[in-house]
C-alpha cells in the first residue's frame, strides 16, 4: 500500500518523464529545477481528478 506522498512522488516522476520527451532536457535537470521551484514557492502541485498539475503561484507570477 502506498502513502499519499508516494502517490504524489509517482505522479511527479510521470510528469518529469513526459517533459523530458517533449523538451529534450534530462530527467535530472528537470527534477532539480522543479524541486527548487517547489521549495521556493514558485509553483505548487494541484490534483484535478486523476491529473496532477503544476501551477504557478502568486510568487512565481511576480517573476514572469
User: CATH superfamily, called what?
Assistant: Winged helix-like DNA-binding domain superfamily/Winged helix DNA-binding domain
What is the third-level CATH name, the topology? Arc Repressor Mutant, subunit A
Radius of gyration: 12 Å
Which segments are poorly predicted (pLDDT under 50) over 5 or more consecutive residues? Answer: none
Mean pLDDT: 80
Class inferred from helices and paired strands: alpha+beta
Strands side by side in the biggest sheet: 1-2
The count of strands amounts to: 2
What is the fold's blueprint, element by element?
Elements: H1 4-23, H2 27-39, E1 43-48, E2 51-56, H3 58-63
Antiparallel strand pairs: 1-2
Task: Give structural notes.
By secondary structure, this protein is of the alpha+beta class. The protein has a single domain, classed as Winged helix-like DNA-binding domain superfamily/Winged helix DNA-binding domain (Arc Repressor Mutant, subunit A), CATH 1.10.10. Helix content is 61%, strand content 19%. The chain contains three helices and two strands; from the N terminus they run H-H-E-E-H. The chain has a two-stranded antiparallel sheet with strand order 1-2. The chain starts with a helix and ends with a helix. The mean pLDDT is 80.
Amino acid at each position: 500500500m502506498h502513502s499519499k506522498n508516494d502517490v504524489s512522488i509517482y505522479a511527479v516522476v510521470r510528469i518529469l518523464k513526459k517533459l523530458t520527451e517533449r523538451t529534450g532536457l534530462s530527467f535530472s535537470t528537470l527534477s532539480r529545477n522543479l524541486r527548487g521551484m517547489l521549495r521556493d514557492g514558485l509553483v505548487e502541485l494541484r490534483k484535478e481528478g486523476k491529473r496532477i498539475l503544476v501551477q504557478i503561484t502568486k510568487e512565481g507570477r511576480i517573476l514572469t
